[in-house]
């Protein structure tokens, strides 16, 4: 990882921070003399790739959240309370080896008796609720609106743009995929070795024009960062699957994936629809499992990943399909989480059209009124949310907020300096609160596997994990106080950064969010301790 030393000047070793009506002086991660520290020029090690979000800026020269430092220096010898964190997402593999010990169980419900034992409106909701039933694929919201004749010019223009773009992607990726397969077969045959290496390819000497073209294709694949063709074929195959899903389901006006039998435009229709099976319906439905692992994968058990927080139980609320979520499902999932004991909700989802956004905002307000923190992913289009609304949100047109416990999170890359903001990350001085590790994050995936994913979807659960630590070890603090701590205790960054992945758009990092900071668990826990005294 290359880091430009001149971009590492941040400010004072101590921060004067004010929150919750009182002042608190806390020791920050010491960064005023970071220029004198030998900086790493090499790429991240495998261990650093898997743990970078937990590392420390000074010690590791990586913009993590100082989670490991927090456990070692702040939480050592302390015990905390169990905190329920609701994950509104796709299904979660609750049997995963790194999650099975941190899954919430509704002790008031008797499994498998087909009764609503706790009278909460949901039958056999043992580990949460599945608002999608057996559904997996869904339309985008703009597709649903246009199919119903309600979309308007903006939705139509957006739809047409996407349809043209993904139709082009399909042709392009299919050509690349077929070229790769042909080149791989040709090189394997020439070398008589299916497991050839870049060194083997570079050693080929030939005057055969066709083989030369195949060699050029394989070398281009290596240039994209792959060191073998199997990984490249897998990635291209996954990309093609996503493109086909977009065209066959997400943008298909004739498709209807709803299986629950309710009217999604009537908030009160068929209460308790769905079922208690919160698991993914297929292995590739991995998003929710990945998010849950970032928050609470069992720590230090010798298995694949460590979550940010201990003392957590994950409540699984399956409400996000392979497409856009329904406002009804999200509104009811938020209320379910609040009514069943969650103190934090993680929402790693979002869309740009929302016909019933008021239902969701009312639910967000309900969470705030009941001392529940909602951690929200900013979105992945590299745009300014102060100029374009994304849903869910807690305000209309940058107006008054309906809740003071709603936190929107942008994503960081594992490299400090001008490239530290993920190119895909949305931002906004009004509508984004903080930034946190979100690119290239390693976590749990279904069937006891692990993978690296990127998105503000990964940044939000990192912050949810820090919030869970605060609420666990300092339970007297309100959700509103925890939000303010997350914002006030973060590390300020004085450097300018590339915004939206556009190298010609360079701005001060502090202008990309309300706090101008990146979340730091070490600082947050020190501030929480001081405010709890």
From TrEMBL:
EC number: 3.4.-.-
Positions of the Peptidase S8/S53 domain: 80-489
Pfam families: Peptidase_S8 (PF00082)
Signal peptide coordinates: 1-24
Annotated spans, Disordered: 255-287
Entry-linked InterPro entries: Pept_S8_subtilisin_bacteroid, Peptidase_S8/S53_dom, Peptidase_S8/S53_dom_sf, Peptidase_S8/S53_subtilisin, Peptidase_S8_Asp-AS, Peptidase_S8_His-AS, Peptidase_S8_Ser-AS, Peptidase_S8_subtilisin-rel
CDD domains on file: Peptidases_S8_Subtilisin_Novo-like
GO MF, one example: hydrolase activity
Record-annotated active site: 89 (charge relay system), 287 (charge relay system), 457 (charge relay system)
Keywords for this protein: Hydrolase, Protease, Serine protease, Signal
EC class (word): hydrolase
UniProt record similarity statement: Belongs to the peptidase S8 family.
Record's protein name: S8 family peptidase
